[in-house]
Amino acid sequence: MNAQVRQDHPGDRAHDIVLFGATGFVGALTAEYLAAHAPAGCRWALAGRDLAKLERLRERLAAIDPACAAVPLLRADASDASAVRELAASTRVLATTVGPYVWYGAELVAACAEAGTDYVDLTGEPEFVDRMYVEHDGRARESGARIVHACGFDSIPADLGAYFTVGQLPEGVPLRVDGFMRSNALFSGGTLASALTALGRGPQTLAAARARRLHEPRLLGRRARGPVGAPRFSRETGAWALPLPTLDPRIVARSAAALERYGPDFRYRHYASVKHLPVAVGGAAAVGATAALAQIPAARRWLMGRWEPGRGPDAERRARSWFTVRFVGEGGGRRVLTEVSGGDPGYGETAKMLAESALCLAYDALPPAAGQLTTATAMGDALITRLQKAGIAFRVADAR
Questions:
Q1: 96-120 burial: b if 16+ Cβ within 10 Å, else e
Q2: Which residues pair with 146 in a beta bridge?
């Protein structure tokens, strides 16, 4: 990528990892995970706009590990460009949970791209990802910053699951991978706000995608696609497959475009897997109705008000939650079925994924790369290994 290699030593910056938005629902879960799993000597800090809330969170973390009583607290508002620049310059990796990212994320990405600071977030907003590519990929390549979006349930299971599946298939041949997602999880107010914001910004999302296509180099001699599939009954999973028009297929396709291991012609499709047809029909209708309401500002505000940001399922409900993504991969006369699975996807496992992504960037030996990257292109096998050790399963279910 002709990226400049950064020269900063860990000692050159005050922190290894800064968690921004630490007092939000997922932010607090991520902080708790770091308190329990950050390696000895990790210099991490909590950041947000309310010091009192940060202090209360730090007290909770000290109950997990008394050493957390000394975790630094940094005050910064996402809209304060000067404070955000100072924050980015103070750390090697900045992780943020503050969404909707299209409203609250741009200054952070800009600051990290300028400072050569690695960046991870939880966005599932295509408009934001495309805008950040157009505006900051070039500078990040120059500074050596690795800008890695979608480091939670959007889109690690799909991206690393497809990457893992491709690794079981022959090289140098056209490959087809389909992902089928099942889960029983609930969502938080912050997730709802981000989803409704994205649904209500159709024209802006299309404009951002067009701008990206103008800036992004064309793939020569290879093809990588993430089309929306058609609803169908899947014999591979024994369930109805409903296309999921999420960020995930775009992320997988970008990994495929960047990595020749995906072959000369790669296609990925992403589905929700639903056992019973009436449930599938009802779910599709509900998604359609929500998308329609999101186009009306008053209706969108009303929906957001039904479940305020900062709230989410309690620990008991999260403990009962699970997810499984089954992948069917074919190419070169070989067919494999793989699975990525874990516990509560939206919160417990998302916090784990974000924290392990930040730790991976901070500590692991990774391929030289910079600019806007995916989890597969930035971290690949190293992050899969971390997630497996943390309890998220990647396995081959069948191969022939």
A1: bbbbbbbebbbbbbbbbbbbbbbbb
A2: 371
Q: Across the strands, what pairs with 341?
A: 324, 393
Quick check: 189 and 25 in contact, CB under 8 A? yes
Q: Are 118 and 148 in contact (CB under 8 A)?
A: yes
Nearest to 330 by CA among 271, 251, 231, 399: 399
- Strand stretches in the chain, DSSP E: 15-20, 44-48, 73-75, 91-96, 118-121, 146-148, 175-183, 223-225, 232-234, 239-243, 265-274, 323-331, 334-342, 371-373, 393-399
How many whole angstroms separate alpha carbon 108 and alpha carbon 289? Answer: 33
Angle between helices 189-199 and 277-294 (to 10 degrees): 70
Which SS3 state, helix, strand or coil, does residue 378 take?
helix
Closest CA to 375 of 248, 286, 277: 248
Q: Identify any residues that bridge with 183 across adjacent strands, giving them in sequence order.
A: 323
d(CA 351, CA 191): 13
pLDDT at 229: 84
Collapsed DSSP state (helix, strand, coil) of residue 225: strand
Cβ(61)–Cβ(35) under 8 Å? Answer: yes
pLDDT at 314: 66
- 197 or 238, greater pLDDT: 238
CB atoms within 10 A of CB 271: 26
Closest by Cα among 319, 377, 31, 333 to 186: 319
For residue 155, say if its preceding peptide bond is cis, omega within 30 degrees of 0. yes
Show Cβ contacts of residue 345 under 8 Å, excluding neighbours closer than 6 positions.
Answer: 153, 157, 183, 185, 321, 322, 323
Alpha helix positions (H), 238-276: 248-258
Task: Say how many CA atoms lie within 13 Å of 155 toward its Cβ.
Answer: 31
Contacts of 4 (CB under 8 A, 6+ apart): 141, 142, 143, 144, 370
Rounded to two decimals, what is the model's pTM? 0.89
Is a pLDDT exceeding 70 seen at residue 23? yes
